[in-house]
Design brief:
With 269 residues, this protein is of the alpha/beta class. 38% of the residues lie in helices and 14% in strands. Bound molecules: phosphoenolpyruvate (PEP). The site of phosphoenolpyruvate has 14 residues, from strand 8.
């Protein structure tokens, strides 16, 4: 494994050839943004032209307060809006929480579950993530299920076993492929500028693909899109997209600006 800010193994393949699944690029605004920042979404919509729309899906996940506004602003742009979290239950005495059904009600079509920042900040476990993924399925949303090893786990040689455990314990058994996306996000790569080698990404994604086929059946498992996430930038996106079994990207910081986000998505042109 190499902790490199650069991408050492340049692959020669065309990005669009690395997967037969329809590519997906997801933007995660985290706790950033404002009403004014929705102007970036409008700019993204303008840049997401017919040619690109015919090739990829684009999802943007703003903070909870802006999901409804973003869903309205995204009408007609081809961009789908997701949330960054949901509660597992439909409704009830859960102050401050929002259900998957409520997200669907305000125009969201996707929800992220299991992001490492929620696993850390709220001590979310695989079973919680699984319950949220089930909630997404129940509400008709697409679950973007995030997993990935910490730096300590990678250094201890446990990256693959950690990812396999997270996958096994958090993916609902009967999840249909069109409602499930896996975001492989090594925790040490998120917001750090560090990116794994193409070989490491390829190894983990191949492992995830094999396990998805075992968990969901060969056909469904091969259709689930597996995204790479962690310090994706316009400067490294093309190399990441070229890796086998990388069906797209999960983009944090670089999704805040329309220009960067569109540059990343634009590698699929
Ligand atoms: C993320 O938060 O999901 C993420 C990938 O962040 P960044 O791209 O900023 O590393």
């Amino acid at each position: 494994m190499s902790f490199s800010g650069r991408f050492p193994l340049l692959l020669k393949k065309e990005p669009a050839m690395s997967s037969k699944n329809r590519p997906l690029v997801v933007g995660n605004w985290k706790m950033n943004g404002s009403r004014a920042a929705l102007g970036e979404l409008v700019a993204m919509g303008k840049g997401f032209d017919g040619a690109l729309r015919s090739k990829i899906d684009l999802v943007l996940c703003p903070p909870m307060t802006h999901v409804a506004l973003a869903a309205q602003a995204a009408v007609g742009t081809g961009i789908s809006i997701g949330a960054q979290n949901c509660h597992a239950k439909v409704s009830g005495a859960h102050t401050g929480d929002v259900s998957a059904e409520m997200l669907a009600d305000i125009g969201a079509t996707a929800v992220m579950v299991g992001h490492s920042e929620r696993r850390t900040d709220y001590k979310e476990k695989d079973a919680d993530v699984r319950a949220k993924a089930e909630a997404a399925q129940r509400a008709g949303l697409m679950a973007v299920l995030c997993l990935g090893e910490t730096k300590a786990e990678r250094e201890a040689g446990k990256a693959l076993s950690v990812v396999r455990r997270q996958l096994k314990d958090s993916v609902p058994a009967n999840m249909p492929a069109h409602q499930l996306v896996i975001g492989y996000e090594p925790v040490w790569a998120i917001g750090t500028g560090l990116v794994p080698t193409a070989k490491d990404v390829e190894e983990v994604h191949a492992l995830i693909r094999g396990d998805l086929k075992r968990l969901l059946g060969k056909e469904e498992g091969s259709k689930v899109r597996i995204l790479y996430g962690g310090s994706v930038k316009p400067s490294n996106a093309a190399e990441l997209l070229a890796v086998d079994n990388v069906d797209g990207l999960l983009v944090g910081g670089a999704s805040l600006k329309a220009e960067d986000f569109l540059t990343i998505a634009g590698f699929y042109r």
